[in-house]
Structures are given as structure tokens and as C-alpha cells.
Input
Amino acid sequence: MNNSDKAFLNKVARAMKDSTEPKPTRKGKSGVPPRLLQLKVTLNDTKIWRRFIVPNFFSLCDLHNVLQIVMGWTNSHLSQFIVGKRDDATYYLAQPFEDFDTPFGEFGGEDASKYDLTYLTEKKMKLRYEYDFGDSWYHDIVVENPDVDYSGDVPVVLDGKLNCPPEDCGGVWGYENILELLKDPSKDEDGILEWVGDYNPDEFSIEEINAELADWFKPKPTKKAVKKVTKKTAKKKTVKKKVQKAWVFTGKTESGK
Output
């Protein structure tokens, strides 16, 4: 083997190494310090998107719950995260792992609750989220800031555009058909608009989303706190007020769940 052949093979090896994208690490095992991630999620083939902040120590399952709320889905279908390119992709099942019956579970899917977001350390890092394996709603998630400076309650949505599609509408094609019918109801020969009801594709409320996030991720009372409430009723109001306070990022290595 001559020098030019060796140089070519080394170049190919480096390219293959560089093409392997970082993957989520086991929850709490990365050694990466707690940080806040600013992410943007876009629903494929639509103009629907959200910008939001989450702690990097959230699990992929936590992120699944955030996405359901910020997008406006109802968590009525199975879902998964896809990390890496097609030939090197790993699938992380976002629903309770036991809900995935074989043969799907034989395809190498991982339990999303056991992996966190600490591997997202650079801008423009990406992962994909699929919701509803029938309608196949693919969401592209990109890191806009891996260490954002934010002092408010988290998770929090910062911005976004448009309402998410109605559940079970038939995927992107069905969603586009609904948009066309809303523009010209005279074309609705199958009663689709009656099924859709009062759906408004332009509806988007940051306030309502953040209220739901705050409710879902508010701290739960610990066993110790419950014990104090039981034995010392005089401190009941104080303890209750403490555990119901909105969760604020403090740099601790546990989520608000």
C-alpha cells in the first residue's frame, strides 16, 4: 500500500468517525454540569414551531412530556425519539417501555426514561421526535443555545407559531386538506369540518402553554414533607406552600418530577 492509498483510507476513517453523532447518555452518568438548553422544535412539512427552555438533566421522557404540552398534542399515541443518521440511528421509546409489544421492541429501542439531555452540548445538534406511528408526525429538534442564561421557571415556552394539527387527521396530507377546507367550506363534501369542530389553525397561546407546563412539572411533595404534614399539623401550611412553589432552575441534578 503506497502513501497516497494510506492517506485516502485515513481520510475515509476520519469522515466515518465524524459522521457518528453523539448519543444520549444514561441519566445522571455523563458528568456534565447542570445547564439550561434553548431548543426549537419544528413539525415537519408545516409552518408550526416552538422555542422553549428545558434543563439538560431532563430525561428524554421528560422532553416527551414537554413536547406534548408545547405542541398541543393529547398524548394519545405511541412516540419515540430518533437520534443519529439512518444507518446509525438509535430509537428511544418515549411511552412506558412495557407498552411497546414485540415485534417492535425487538428492533433495538431504548427506554427514554433512562437517558438524559446532557449530551446536547453544542449549537445546531439535532434529534427527531415521532408522534403517532399511524399519522407519523415527525418533529425536528435543534439546539439553539446549549447554556442559555435564564432565571425564571422552567420548562418554559418562549415563542412559537400556529396550532398543532387535530389528532387522527391523517398526517400532513389530512392536515393540509383541513386547511384548504377551512378556506373554502363549500368543498367539504365529506363532513370533515363538522368532525374538526371549532379547530383554529392560527391559535397559539404562550400563557396557556406555560400554565400547563408549570402545573405538570411542579414539584411533588417528598415522603419527608408528607410525614411532617401528618405529624405536625401546625406546620401544614408552611410545608404545603413550599412544595407547591413553581420549580426554578437551581443547578440541582434532579428534575422537578
Observations:
- The radius of gyration is 22 Å.
- Residues 20-162+204-217 form a domain with the Structural Genomics Hypothetical 15.5 Kd Protein In mrcA-pckA Intergenic Region; Chain A fold (CATH 3.10.290.30).
- The beta strands are 36-43, 49-55, 79-83, 90-93, 110-111, 126-131, 137-145, 156-161.
